From TrEMBL:
InterPro entries: TRIM45/56/19-like, Znf_B-box
Pfam families cross-referenced by the UniProt entry: zf-B_box
Gene Ontology molecular-function annotations: zinc ion binding
Name under which the protein is recorded: B box-type domain-containing protein
Superkingdom: Eukaryota
Source species: Mytilus edulis (Blue mussel)
SUPFAM superfamilies on file: B-box zinc-binding domain
Keywords: Metal-binding, Zinc, Zinc-finger
Occurrences of domain B box-type (ranges): 7-48
Length: 314
C-alpha cells in the first residue's frame, strides 16, 4: 500500500512566508497565490497533487531504468570475476609449464654433464696410467745410468789396465739407455662449451606466443524482433502460459490481466486482484501470492471464469 504524499506544506521560493498551492505547467514550477497574481494568471495551472503523481510515476520509470542498469552491472561484474578467476588459473598453469620445462632441461643437462664427467674420468685414468708408466720407466733408466756411471768411475780410478780394457769392451758395445723410449700421449679430449645464441636457447626451451584468452561468461546478444504495447504504465510482471497466452500485472493497478498474443495484444480477462508474484504449475494452473497477504492462491482453468473469488488459499 502506498503512503500518502503531503503536498500542502511546500514553501514558496520567492515569497518565503507563503506556501505553494498550484503547479504552473507553462513555467514548470510550483507557485503560491502571490506568484499566480503577479505573473501566472494566464498560464496553464494544475493541482500539486496531480503533477506530483505524474512526476512520481516518471520517477518510478527512471528508478526502474536505474534498477535495470544495476542488474546489467551485476551481470558485468560476474563476468569480470569469472574472467579474473579463469585468467588466474590460466596464468598459474602457464608458470607451471615453464617450471616443468625448466626442470626437464635441468635434468637432461645434468644427465648430459654427468656423461661428460664420466668420459673425462675415463680419459684421465688413461692419461694418468701413461704418466705413471713413464715415471716408472724413467726411474728405472736413471738407476741403470747411475749404476753404470759408478762402475766406469771405479775403473777410471783403478790402476789396473785389464779393468780398462774389459770395461771399454762392455760399455762401448752396449747402447746407453734412453728415458724417452715411451713418449707422452699426443691426444686427449677437451670440453668446448656451445656458444649458443638466444635463438638456440629459444628452440631448446620454448617461447611465449600469442594465444586466445580464456573465455568468460558467454556474451548474450538480445535482438528485439517484435514489441507490444498495453495500457499499463508499466508491466512489472509477465507470466507466459503458452505460445499465445500470458498474464501481466502492474504494481500500482489492482488488476491481473490475461492477454492473447498474436500480431497485437488482446485482453482476454481482467481479474481485480493486487499481485505480488506469480508462477505456472505443471498442470498449467497459476500460483499467486497477493500483496499485503501471507496466503498463496491457486488459479485453475475452471476458476478463471469466476475470477478471484474462487481461488483456493493455502
Amino acid at each position: 500500500m502506498e503512503h500518502t504524499i503531503i503536498t500542502d506544506n511546500i514553501p514558496c521560493q520567492i515569497h518565503k512566508k507563503k506556501l505553494n498551492c498550484m503547479f504552473c505547467r507553462t513555467c514548470d514550477q510550483l507557485v503560491c497565490p502571490e506568484c499566480i497574481t503577479a505573473s501566472h494568471k494566464r498560464h496553464d495551472l494544475d493541482s500539486i497533487d496531480t503533477v506530483c503523481n505524474e512526476k512520481r510515476e516518471k520517477l518510478k520509470e527512471i528508478e526502474s531504468k536505474f534498477s535495470e542498469k544495476f542488474t546489467l552491472c551485476e551481470i558485468e561484474d560476474s563476468k569480470i570475476k569469472d574472467f579474473k578467476t579463469k585468467y588466474e588459473q590460466f596464468s598459474a598453469k602457464l608458470v607451471q609449464k615453464i617450471n616443468q620445462q625448466e626442470q626437464l632441461i635441468k635434468d637432461e643437462v645434468s644427465k648430459y654433464a654427468k656423461d661428460f664427467r664420466e668420459q673425462q674420468e675415463s680419459e684421465k685414468q688413461r692419461i694418468t696410467k701413461s704418466i705413471t708408466e713413464k715415471e716408472k720407466h724413467t726411474e728405472e733408466v736413471k738407476k741403470t745410468l747411475l749404476k753404470k756411471q759408478s762402475n766406469i768411475k771405479e775403473v777410471l780410478e783403478s790402476n789396473q789396465a785389464a779393468q780398462v780394457f774389459s770395461a771399454f769392451q762392455e760399455f762401448s758395445e752396449k747402447e746407453i739407455p734412453d728415458s724417452s723410449i715411451k713418449t707422452f700421449p699426443e691426444e686427449t679430449k677437451d670440453f668446448i662449451p656451445t656458444k649458443g645464441s638466444l635463438m638456440t636457447i629459444k628452440n631448446l626451451f620454448g617461447s611465449l606466443q600469442k594465444t586466445n584468452l580464456p573465455k568468460g561468461l558467454p556474451q548474450v546478444q538480445l535482438d528485439v524482433i517484435k514489441s507490444y504495447t498495453t495500457d499499463f504504465k508499466m508491466v512489472d510482471r509477465i507470466l507466459i502460459q503458452d505460445d499465445k497466452t500470458a498474464w501481466i500485472s502492474n504494481d500500482h493497478m489492482p488488476t491481473l490481466r490475461k492477454i492473447q498474443i498474436d500480431d497485437t495484444i488482446t485482453t482476454v480477462q481482467n481479474i481485480p486482484v493486487n499481485i505480488y508474484d506469480m508462477s505456472v504449475t505443471e498442470n498449467n494452473d497459476i500460483l499467486l501470492s497477493l500483496k499485503d497477504s501471507s496466503d498463496v492462491s491457486l488459479l485453475t482453468k475452471r476458476q478463471e471464469k469466476s475470477h478471484i473469488s474462487c481461488l483456493y488459499h493455502h
